[in-house]
Structure formats: structure tokens, C-alpha cells
Write a structure and sequence with these properties.
The protein is of the alpha+beta class. Helices cover about 55% and strands about 20% of the residues. A hairpin with a 2-residue loop joins strand 4 and strand 5. Helix 1 packs across helix 10, helix 2 crosses helix 10 and helix 8 packs parallel to helix 11. The longest helix has about 45 residues. The radius of gyration is 32 Å and the shape is elongated.
């Protein structure tokens, strides 16, 4: 214990004599640890963000799309996508399944929305009244359209909060107003509560113009749907509902013509993509750790040269080669850990402020890896200068000028 304290005291005295050099040497490790930890924190935050978005839409939601969207747990290539489009007949087939609670067709297209002086590009989401129940969409102001509106092809829309804010002074003032969708006039009957999202894991539901799907036949002239959304009854497992849908649709289509996808499957596929991207970014950021380690090795070589006479005197009064080796090795580790602690502390501060707008966070394994890598760099890049110091002959060291 006394021996270890002596080495720490000796290292501290050397660092105190060269404060500027000590800080600059640790700076490379600081930047490397900061970069790696922040990228991991953003990756964890992104994964949580995507998971929360999907859970907010319901855990028992199933999406039926043409072709094979997922293969082996990952998104398939474009060549695997099908060319079929669903129609009313498919909706009626799925509504008859006892395992399914609600079924809603989906037709979507890019549109231009005109609200007098304000014009906004957006997306139309044409569906049935059940879509609001399936995706847990609730009106903040006004109300959503009903089955009666769908059957009568009423020219009404429900808009997302983001597009309401862009077209009108505030969300509530949009209720009852007339907007033009690609030149066709519609009355705004509701503004939805914000679900957040957009940009990751799918469409931004807050930016859609929702319309009864039969009303949308003025745009969707062939009366086909790009997808169907359904949810399983509470007492039915997702797997059972999925199997039931597949059996129902294979009476009309081939098994490879469509996919029935769970929320978790989409989430896992997206997470795997972002996981690979994040791993590549972390690997690139780790290069700065190697650069920092080389910097430590260079400084330790300079330190050994400056203290050759001290090493010779210590060896002459009884210090062993291992004592010299451990002294310089521990000094190298301390430099690395100092940079690691500083980088980690700075990362915590940055993440603290970022959490107000994005759910990034630093977990325990990340902290352990950051400090472990820091100390490992100290050992790897410190062993060569330390060995050089330990191999010095006491007589040659004392005579060194």
C-alpha cells in the first residue's frame, strides 16, 4: 500500500510540474471518450425514441402491405416488393375474422393544402373511422369523422396538429374552416392531439390530412389501397391474429404477394439498421482514442528522457526494474483515466441538456466501457516507454547529460 501511494505521489508531483503538458496529453483521450460516449448515448436515445413511438400507436397493431417488406428480420430489397393493391373485397374479408377487432384501409398521396393565404405541402391519409381507434388517435379540438361520413363521402377532413399550426394561427382556430386539398374544398372538423415523431420509424402522423377513404375516391380513382391496418382483439395473441389474416388473404393471393407485419418486427428491423450505423460511427470516433494513446506514448517517451538521471539514481539505491516499469506504467494509466473521467463528465453535462429535446441517455455499461478503454489505452501505450525506462543501465543513466 505504501509503495503504491509513493508511486501516486511521485506521479502527482511530475504532473504538477508540467500542468500544461498533462492537460494537453489527456485532451486526446478526453475527445475520444466524449465522442464515443455521446454517439452511444444518441444511439440508445434513438432506440428508445423509436420504441416509444411504436408503443404509442398500440402494441397489437398489424400492418398488411403488398410484397415481402421484411425478410429475415430486415427490410427486403426493392425487387421483393409486390405489385398487388388491396380493395374493398379484402377489407370485408378481414372484417369477418373473429380474431380482428378493427380493420382500416390506407390510401396515401402527396398533396398541396391551401388555406387562403397559407399553402402547405403535405400528405393525405385516407382511411375509415376505425383508423383513429387502431392508432390511438384522439381529437384535441373538434371531432373525428364517423362511419356515416365515410359512407356518405362527406367532404370533411381531420388534420394533424403540425399542419394545423402551419396553416392557421393556432390549432383551435382551424375547426370549421375550409381548406383546399389539390383544389378540392373540404371542411376541417377536427385537429388531433400530438403523437410526436416523424423522421424515424415511419410517417409523421402529426402532419397528415386525414380523410374518409370513400371521399378520397376523387383522388384514388381505381379504388385501391396501399396498405391495410388492423388490430387484434384483446384476448387474442398477435401471432394468432397474424396467422388468421394470412389464411384469409391467401384464399385470393399467393403467400409471397403480401406481408403481415407486427409493430415489434418493424421496430426490430429499424433498430438493427440504426444499430449498424451507430456501430460504424462509434468505430470512426474510436480512432481519436488511438490518436490520444499515441500522444500519451510520445509524452511518456519524452518524460523518460527527461528523468533518465532520476531513474539511474533510483536504480543505484536499490530500485528494481519492475519498480521503474510500474512507476511509468501507472503514470500513463493515470493520464488516460484523467482524460477518460473528464470526457465522461463532459458527456454527462451535454446529455443532461440534450434530454430536454431528445431522450439520449448514458447507461452503466457505457460508463464501464469508457473507463475500461481509458485505462486499457494507458496500459497499451504506456508499456513501451515504461519498459524503456526499466531497461536503462543505472551507470549509463547517472552519466546521462
Amino acid at each position: 500500500m505504501f509503495y503504491f501511494l509513493f508511486i501516486l505521489k511521485s506521479a502527482g508531483a511530475d504532473f504538477a510540474r508540467n500542468k500544461g503538458r498533462t492537460i494537453l496529453t489527456s485532451l486526446g483521450i478526453l475527445i475520444g471518450v466524449l465522442s464515443v460516449v455521446l454517439l452511444v448515448a444518441f444511439g440508445l436515445g434513438l432506440r428508445k425514441y423509436i420504441k416509444d413511438q411504436f408503443e404509442s400507436l398500440g402494441t397489437n397493431v398489424l400492418r398488411i402491405v403488398p410484397g415481402k417488406l421484411l425478410q429475415g428480420g430486415n427490410f427486403s430489397s426493392g425487387s421483393s416488393l409486390g405489385v398487388i393493391r388491396f380493395d374493398e373485397r379484402d377489407i370485408q374479408t378481414l372484417k369477418k375474422l373473429k380474431e380482428i377487432e378493427y380493420v382500416a384501409p390506407v390510401f396515401s398521396k402527396s398533396i398541396t393544402v391551401d388555406a387562403g393565404r397559407n399553402t402547405q405541402d403535405g400528405n393525405m391519409y385516407a382511411s375509415s373511422a376505425d383508423i383513429f381507434l387502431i392508432l390511438n388517435l384522439s381529437p384535441q379540438y373538434g371531432e373525428v369523422f364517423t362511419k356515416r361520413d365515410v359512407d356518405k363521402r362527406t367532404k370533411v377532413v381531420v388534420i394533424g396538429p403540425k399542419i394545423a399550426e402551419k396553416l392557421f394561427s393556432d390549432r383551435e382556430s382551424a375547426i370549421g374552416k375550409t381548406i383546399k386539398v389539390d383544389g378540392q374544398a373540404f371542411r376541417v372538423m377536427g385537429v388531433l392531439e400530438s403523437k410526436g415523431g416523424g423522421g424515424f420509424g415511419g410517417p409523421d402522423l402529426d402532419s397528415f390530412v386525414y380523410m374518409p377513404y370513400k371521399t378520397a375516391y376523387i383522388f384514388n380513382t381505381d379504388k385501391k389501397f396501399i396498405a391495410i391496418v388492423a388490430n387484434a382483439k384483446t384476448d387474442v395473441t398477435i401471432a394468432k391474429a397474424k396467422e388468421s389474416i394470412q389464411i384469409g388473404l391467401t384464399k385470393r393471393y399467393k403467400a409471397d404477394d403480401f406481408s403481415v407485419i407486427e409493430q415489434t418486427e418493424i421496430l426490430n428491423a429499424i433498430s438493427s439498421i440504426f444499430g449498424i450505423v451507430n456501430a460504424v460511427l462509434v468505430a470512426i470516433a474510436a480512432i481519436s482514442l488511438i490518436v490520444g494513446g499515441i500522444g500519451i506514448m510520445n509524452i511518456m517517451y519524452v518524460t523518460v528522457t527527461e528523468r533518465i538521471k532520476e531513474i539511474g539514481i533510483r536504480r543505484a539505491i536499490g530500485a528494481r526494474r519492475s519498480d521503474i516499469l510500474y512507476q511509468f506504467l501507472i503514470e500513463s494509466i493515470i493520464l488516460s483515466l484523467f482524460g477518460g473521467f473528464m470526457g465522461l463528465s463532459l458527456a454527462f453535462i451535454i446529455v443532461f441538456f440534450i434530454q430536454r429535446i431528445f431522450p439520449a441517455y448514458i447507461d452503466v455499461p457505457t460508463v464501464a466501457v469508457a473507463l475500461g478503454v481509458s485505462s486499457g489505452i494507458g496500459i497499451v501505450f504506456g508499456v513501451f516507454p515504461a519498459k524503456k525506462a526499466a531497461d536503462l543501465s543505472p551507470i549509463d543513466a547517472i552519466r546521462y547529460e
